[in-house]
Specification:
Number of domains: 1
Order of helices and strands: HEEEHHEEHH
Shape: elongated
Mean pLDDT: 75
Largest sheet: 3 strands, antiparallel
Oligomer: single chain
Number of helices: 5
Helix content: 55-70%
Number of strands: 5
Keywords: Membrane, Transmembrane, Transmembrane helix
Radius of gyration: 26 Å
Amino acid sequence: MEGGFGLLLFSVIIITAIAYGLMTSQNRKHGRQRVCADCATVANPKRKPRGSMGVEIILWLLFIIPGLIYSIWRQSTYRATCPECGSDNLVPLNTPRGRKLAAEFQEHDRANDLETAAPSRRERAQAAARLNRR
């Protein structure tokens, strides 16, 4: 009886490993750079599975077959998320909307850089001269 359960458990582990390998090889397209429409980060997205690790562990501990089904579902439903803010509102850079978002965010960053840039030597000298005239 114990040999049959061990064989069943071993078979489930092997099937899960094969399914995991197949699912992760199909999700390699997430590696392209994308722009986050929420925080303007341009980077390679992180892959985050849907569902809950806690539910997966409980299903594996209590029931082998539902745990296997849930694990396969989680491994097959990865989503691309922003590495900075965690949002899944990402746009590929090679699309018209992605290029537009990246250009808008770059213009906004340049404007902010100009506002917060440290004054040049000439600007400091002019400010000192104005203060001396008073």
